[in-house]
Design goal:
By secondary structure, this protein is α/β, with parallel strands linked by helices. It has helices spanning about 5-10, 30-35, 50-60, 110-115, 140-150, 165-175, 195-200, 210-215, 215-225, and strands spanning about 20-25, 40-45, 75, 95-100, 125-130, 180-185, 190, 235-240, 240-250. The chain is globular. It comes from Streptomyces leeuwenhoekii.
Length: about 250
Amino acid sequence: MLVPLYEAVYERLDVGAGTRLLGLGCGSGLALLMAASRGAAVTGVDARAPERLALARERLLPGTESTRARADTRIVEGSPRDADGAGAAAYTLVTAFEPIGCLAGDSEGLGELLAEATPLAERGTPVVLAGWGPPERCATSSVLRVATRLADPLRSARSWRPALRDDLEEVAQRAGLRPDGSGRVACPFGYADLASAVRGLLSTGLFDAAVTATGQEQVDKELTEALHPYRRGDGTVWMPNVFRYLIARTP
């Protein structure tokens, strides 16, 4: 769903041959694959989702049937520090594409990742942060509130909250980075039907606390109900969203 965001950033920063990209929280590796297809050498790190990293390796590592990546592609389970190979060239682009600004505390830990990644990059390297746009321009925001309401018995810290205008700038400032431009990109969430939409949203992990609190069946039921306003006549589900990105520079 975030492909337009990746494309906009890569186009703006002229990602291509000669780019050495470090992707923080790379997940299943789609953003890395797109950069690699433009000729970039990519390294992805993630410490949270081994099953998604397995998909990233399948997509990107040399020797797999679907790879379009270069031979120097790396997928690392762990932190940026674990991607610091002896004698490795400094990175020229760092990305943190997982959007912040829809859950309370969802930027926690990002500062630590940036602190580890910054020394691995050249001076003045662009660091890209991503966030949700204003709630009134993100249809998915209303659906995410279901997760908050159902998880409330756990008093989970990861509750829904509206994105704030300076979320990304505050993260950059805490990490000692210098803001150097931003942009907004339309990223609609589209699904073939309600069942696909439920599966897709559950796969983000944003509903995990709700499932723990009330059970899978209840979450599926209320998520399906919340999605009904976005169901079109042909049965597809379409939710317009706007995401924001910030480009900051390393000192």
